[in-house]
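Structure in, sequence out. Go:
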């Protein structure tokens, strides 16, 4: 008995659809992994900030004089940005963080002091 053409094509079409489904699943898996990596990286960056006003000590010279802020000062202001509202709510720190010179330094660093 000769196999019909239809019976020969059926396994071929099934294997092509299986390959197509596997390729789609692989792409979906890669996309989900990429999203998870991005979410975990964002969580790590957010969790890594420790609010400590002493981290801004490299900015004292720029705040108390008219010298431009150093790169270290600017990096510390950017690092401490999530903490600035907390510092503004502290009566002992507010007068320093909210001073016109501190605002100038923060703006010069590209990180203006937020309105909280």
């Amino acid at each position: 008995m000769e196999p019909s053409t239809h019976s020969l094509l059926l396994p071929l079409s099934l294997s092509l659809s299986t390959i197509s489904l596997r390729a789609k699943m692989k792409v979906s898996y890669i996309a989900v992994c990429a999203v998870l990596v991005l979410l975990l990286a964002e969580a790590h960056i957010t969790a890594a900030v420790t609010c400590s006003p002493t981290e801004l000590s490299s900015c004292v010279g720029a705040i108390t004089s008219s010298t431009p802020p150093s790169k270290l000062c600017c990096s510390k202001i950017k690092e401490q940005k999530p903490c600035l509202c907390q510092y503004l709510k502290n009566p002992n720190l507010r007068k320093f963080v909210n001073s016109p010179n501190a605002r100038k330094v923060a703006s010069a660093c590209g990180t203006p002091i937020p309105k909280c």
